[in-house]
């Protein structure tokens, strides 16, 4: 294969090359081969230059009518699934991994929370990557009672765990954190009852029946995209898989039909119950991407969620 000739590019400022390439490609509608012939390089080099120019913002894409379409899609989600509200990450936003999507979803979730949370509210949040991203992008909040919704487990990274997240939100809001320093579950029913009667646990759980706003990620069990699935004992997980478990919403487990499943957590665990979630005034689920899709569908079928925050592609699939 002949060696690529970069002589025409070496004497030019890279900024000029980026600008020239994107002008030729996007404005003048020239092909990569035509641009390659003009510059004396391969079409693969041109493709790399276009990607680099986009990454470095020598060209940006705007979708003038997209905001109205995003709002229309959100409204249609509300109608189809009986939601109070929905927020859709615009098609103009791009990502190349679930981690990057979580950051994008965390950003719009943080903006949404900043608009709805009012002073004195009882606000609960679960745990996980997308909520960690949400909390990291919060800036100012009114004073809140920030409530931990489950016990803790060493399998969940501390920075994504319930205790760390509620303390961070309380610090931002200058409100009060209500932690619960107990495991997510124990192995013995008598020990579970003893811990449940502990005054510190009771002081936090007293908020559960009257929560104003709760935000949670959505675990998807069938694709393995669930931190709860990852940390469950094998015997528990296998039994639930045989019952078609598809999603978790906080510590409530849901099958593909949206039916709530019984689980050992109901006897041995510490966390907000399904009935208490249903009594929450606004229960927000944040999730997106292909690996979360089945979990999102199941959680919507369950009727637990009042609000869904997701990406454009997932929203379109949900409306199909």
Description:
There is one protein chain. The chain is an alpha/beta fold and 320 residues long. It folds into 2 domains: 49 residues, Arc Repressor Mutant, subunit A (Orthogonal Bundle); 254 residues, 3-Layer(aba) Sandwich (Rossmann fold). It contains 16 helices and 10 strands. Strands 1, 2, 3, 4, 5, 6, 7, 8, 9 and 10 form a 10-stranded mixed sheet that branches. β7 and β8 form a beta hairpin. The chain is elongated. Belongs to the SorC transcriptional regulatory family. This is Sugar-binding domain-containing protein. One of its GO terms (molecular function) is carbohydrate binding. InterPro entries: NagB/RpiA_transferase-like, SorC_transcr_regulators, Sugar-bd_dom_put, WH-like_DNA-bd_sf.
**Which residues sit in consecutive blocks of at least 5 with pLDDT less than 50?**
none
**Helix content bin:** 40-55%
CATH topology of the largest domain: Rossmann fold
Distance between the termini: 48 Å
The first-level CATH class name of the largest domain: Alpha Beta
Task: Quickly give the structural class.
Answer: alpha/beta
Family: Belongs to the SorC transcriptional regulatory family.
GO molecular function, one term: carbohydrate binding
InterPro entries: NagB/RpiA_transferase-like, SorC_transcr_regulators, Sugar-bd_dom_put, WH-like_DNA-bd_sf
Domain Sugar-binding: 72-319
